[in-house]
């Protein structure tokens, strides 16, 4: 008698559990789970938009897929007394006041060392005082970088200063400065290699 009661009880329990499990599966099948995207270690919700300033792209999460487009930069139509230049932290060129000194054209903030250190400010070259750090290299191992007034040691990593290059270009250290260079298979867009696109075949 006890064995019969036990088998009926177990059978009813298993049947009840299976019914419960089946109803939960039915509920889950009707549930629409939100799709997400992961980019650069961040999880984004469906239809969420973000900007990748280091690659100069607008991105979005669309049905679980990351879609990105290069930020369109219209030409900077600058007046005669300004220059179209890349401004740190921005993707598109901006107009900045220019200075002309000894047949050289400089943009706002650029420096030049003649007998003393001068900087382009509001279209004029003004004298600035700069305390140069001590260097751990001989005079022969020192160079004067572009647009600066203090020497540095050869082999300096200019790219470590954070020059922004687009996703199809990369920062390259030159003798006295850093500059962007298009990756293989890509060509310059705006007359420099900060932003590059695939070459048309």
Automatic annotation (TrEMBL):
GO terms for cellular component: cytoplasm; extracellular space. This is VWFC domain-containing protein. Keywords: Glycoprotein. It comes from the Eukaryota. GO terms for molecular function: heparin binding; protein kinase C binding. The lineage of its organism: Eukaryota, Metazoa, Chordata, Craniata, Vertebrata. SMART domains: VWC. Transmembrane segments: none annotated. GO terms for biological process: positive regulation of ossification; regulation of osteoblast differentiation. InterPro entries: PKC-binding_NELL, VWF_dom. Residues 35-96 form the VWFC domain. The keyword Glycoprotein applies. The keyword Glycoprotein applies.
């Amino acid at each position: 008698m006890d064995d019969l009661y036990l088998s009926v009880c177990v059978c009813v329990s298993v049947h009840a559990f299976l019914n419960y499990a089946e109803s939960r599966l039915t509920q889950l099948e009707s549930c629409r789970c939100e799709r997400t995207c992961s980019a650069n270690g961040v999880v984004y919700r469906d239809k969420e938009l973000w900007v990748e300033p280091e690659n100069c792209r607008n991105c979005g999460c669309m049905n679980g897929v990351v879609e990105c487009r290069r930020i369109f930069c219209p030409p900077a139509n600058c007046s005669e007394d300004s220059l179209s230049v890349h401004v740190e932290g921005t993707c598109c060129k901006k107009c900045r006041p220019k200075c002309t000194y000894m047949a050289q054209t400089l943009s706002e903030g650029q420096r030049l060392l003649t007998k003393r250190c001068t900087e382009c400010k509001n279209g004029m070259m003004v004298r600035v005082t700069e305390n140069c750090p001590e260097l751990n290299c001989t005079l022969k191992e020192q160079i004067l970088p572009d647009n600066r007034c203090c020497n540095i040691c050869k082999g300096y990593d200019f790219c470590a200063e954070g020059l922004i290059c687009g996703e199809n270009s990369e920062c390259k250290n030159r003798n006295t400065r850093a500059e962007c260079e298009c990756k293989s298979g890509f060509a310059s867009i705006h007359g420099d290699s900060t932003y590059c696109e695939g070459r048309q075949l």
